[in-house]
Task: structure prediction
Amino acid sequence: MALQLLAHFDVREDVLPSLPAQPETTAGGGGADVLETTYESLRVLNIERNGNIIYTYKDNKGNAVFGLYDCQARQNEHLYTFEKDMQAISCSVNSARTVLAASFIQYTKEGVRNELHPGSKCLTLLVEIHPVNNVKVLKAVDSCIWVQFLYPHAESHRLQNHLLLISEEKYIERFHIQMTREDGNRVIRNSSHLPRDRIVEDFVWAQWDMSEQRLYYIELKKSESILKCIQFWADESFDLMFEMPLDISLSDLGFKLVNFGYDYRQDQEKFRSQPSLCIFTNHTEVNRLSLGSTLSPNKHTKTRGSLCVCYSPKIESWKEITYSVFYLHKGYRKTFTAAAGSADSHVTEGITFLNLGYFVAVYLPGHFLHLLNTHHPDLICHSLFLTGSNKMAAVLPLSPLQSLPGSLILDWHSGKVYRATLDQSYLMSFLWNARLDCEKMAALHCVLSCGRDPGFPEGQILQWISEQASACHSFDLIQEFLTASSYWSVYPELADVDMLLPYSSVLTWDTEIPGITLVKEELPLPLLKVYNLKGYWAKLSSKLEYIKYTKPHLHYHNSVVRREWHNLLSEEKTGKRRSTMYVRNILDSAVKVISNMEKRILEPRLLPLLQEEDRHQRLLMGLMVSELRDHLLRHLQGVEKKKVEQLVLDYISKLLDLVWCMLETAWRKHSVHPWLFHLNDRGSAADFEVFHLMTRILDATNSLCFPLPPGFHSLHTILGVHCLPLYNLLHYIDNGVLLLTETAVTRLMKDLDNSEKNEKLKFSVIVRLPPLIGQKIFRLWDHPMSSNIISRNHVARLLRGYKKEVNLCEAQTPRNCMIDKSSFPVEFLPLNYFIEILTGLESSNQALSDLEGRDNVDAEFVEEAALKHTTVLLGL
Result:
C-alpha cells in the first residue's frame, strides 16, 4: 500500500477509559452496557489550532457532556455539562479554556422532546465555564449555526476573544468577547451586548484553515465561482488577501463547509453525489512528535508558499473519473481523467483529497490512488498513478475524512485521527517491480521526499540504483538520482531552494502515462490585495513574481563551471598559468568540501577514496562551490553568507557521498576488495559489473559536470586493466573514458611483471601519459623500453638547446662560437657520432646549468639505453 496510516488519536481508546464511571440504569443492566451506550454517543466535534480535540457524549441521564483531549499532555479535561438532552452540532473553546461556544439542534427523531426555544431549529450558546457563570444565547434561529474561536497565537490567553459564527443562511459574523478579571477569574464583560462584525455574506462554500487562521470561501457571481481568502492576524485585525475566479461549477452544491466540524445529520448519498472541493497549503516543515505540535506554529518552521485547489465534479459516469488541481502558486490548472479501474466494479464513493505535504493524494476507494507532486508538478512523470487493487481498497476508511495540517486525517465517523505517510517499504517494492520509466521516476521522487523520516531506506535505493542503472530508456537513472537526492538533502534548509536548485535532470517529458489523460490550462495569477506581506504570503508573492517575470527559470546549471573547468585544464596542457591566488582559492574550496564530507562519514568505508590529490576533480569541486555560492547569494535576499556557504558545502558533499555509497554498495554485493585482487589475474563477471557501473556513473557526471570523489578515476582505470582486453582498454583511454592517473599507473608498473603481454600493456600506457605524470612514471619501470623513453626525452631537451646554439654560430664568427663543429671526429657509426655531440653539449657550462636538479641522465646512459633497445628490437 502506497499510504500508511498510523493511529494518532482514538476517541474510544484515549477518551472512553477516562470518563467518570456511570451507575447502572436498570436492575439487570451492567456497567459494560452503560459504557457501550456512552461510546455510541461519544463523538468528536472539533479540533482547535493547538491540536486539542473537543468531544461530546451523553451521560446516563441523557445530559450533553463536553470534554477536551489535550494532545500534548495526553490528558482529558471536562469542560461543561448541559443538564438537558440536546444534540450538539458544533463546539469551540477559547485558548484559555474559560469560554465555550456550542450550537444545538432539535431532534428530528420521533418521540424525542424538543429542549430548545419554541419554533427555533438551532440554538447557539456562549458559556463561561471557568468559573461556571453566565450562559448567553447568541442565536436561536431556524438555520444551523457553526462556531469557531479564533486563535491569534497557539498559547495566547488574551482578554479579548473573537468568535466566528457561520450560518446556513450564507453569512459569517465575528463576535468580540471582552474579558475582565473578577476575584482573580476571567469573566465576560457586558455579556448582554457583544459587538460583532459581518465578515462574509452570500457564499456557497467555505473552508477553515485552523493552523494558519485563514478563511477561504467562494461566492457565485453570474454563475462564476470567485475564490476569496481572509487572513486573521495576531493583532485581531483581518484582511481580504486575494480573490480569483475558478472555472468550476458549484451551482448544485447549495451550501457546504469544510473543517468547521462534521454534520452527522447530512445525507451520505447526497454527500457522495455533490462536487468535492478543498484547498491545501503546504508551507511549513513541522515537528512530527505530537498532534498539538503539528498544528501549532513553530519558530523553526520553513515557509514554502504553495496553494492548491482540488476539485472533483459530480460523478456522472463510473467508467471515467475527472478531477482538477489548480496549482495557484504555479499559475496553471491540470485536469486529470482516469479510468475508474476494473470494469466489473462501480463507483460507490466520492473522491477524497488528502494533503501529504509534498504530495496530494487523490483517492477513489477500490479504484485508484494518485500521488500528485504539488511542489514540482511541471512534469507528469513526477506524480505517481496507481490503479486499484484489493489491498489499495482497504487503505483508507470509507467514511468521510477531513485532511488536517501535518498530514493528519480525521475520520469523523469513528473518531480516529491518523497520520498519513508514504509507505516506504511499499514504494521500494514498487521500484523493484515497476516496468514503466514514468513509474520509476515518480516512485523515486516519492521515496526521496521522505529523506528525513525514520527508517529512510537509502541503502535499498542505492542497491536498486546499482542494479537498475541501465534499465531506464527515457532518462538517465543515475543523473536523476544524483540530482534529486542532493536537492532533497538540502531542501528543508531554505525556503526558496526549490526555485534555485534543480530537482530533476529531466527537462521535458512527452511519453504518455497509461490510463491517464491530462489537460493543462494557464491561469490568471491571484493578485494579492495586501502589500505589507509577511510569512506565508510573502513567500507566495515571491513565487508569483517569479512565475510572472522570470524567464528563463533561476535553477542553477553547470554551464559556467564546465567552461571554466575546461579552460583551466587547457591552460595546464599548454603551460599557461592563471593567477596563483585564483587557483589557490578554488583548491581551498575543494578542501572545505572534502573536510565537510569526511565529517559526514560515521563509519569506515571499504573503498579508500579521498586519499589522492586528483587536481582535476578538486578544481571542478572548487569551481562548483564558487559558482553555486554566487548563484544562491545573488537570489537569496537576507540570508546569511555563512548559512549559504554551508548549504553549498552540504550539497556538493552529498553529491560526492552518493557516488561513494553507490560504489560501496556494488562492491559489497560482489564481495570485491579494490586493493587485493591481482592484476595478473583476469577479471571476473562481478568485477566487470562494477566496472560497468563506474562507467555509467562517469558518463552521468560528465553530462552534468558534477565532480567525482578523488580516487574514482584511479579505481576505474585499475578495474579497466583488470577486466578489458588491451585493444578495448586503449580504446577507452584514447576516448577519455579511462583517465590515466599517477596512482593507477604507478600500481600498474609495480604490480605487473615484464612478460611480453605486460610489456606491451605498459608501453602502450606509458606513451599515452601526460608529460607531467610521465616524468615520474618512466623511472618506475626497470626496462630498456622505459630507459629508451627517458633517454629520448633527455636527448630532446639537449638538442633543443643545441639547435639554438648552432643557429647562433652560423650567424656569428666561428671564433665566437661555443661549439666548434670541426672538432668532432667524422666516423661511420652514427651512434658514436651522436654520443660525441651529447658529450660536448654536457661539458658546456650552459648545458650543466640546464640539467641542474634533473635526474642523473647523461650521454653514457643514453648510449646504454640505445644499445639495450636495439637488442630488444633485434631479439638478441
Notes: DSSP finds 25 helices and 31 strands in the chain. The chain has a mean pLDDT of 80.
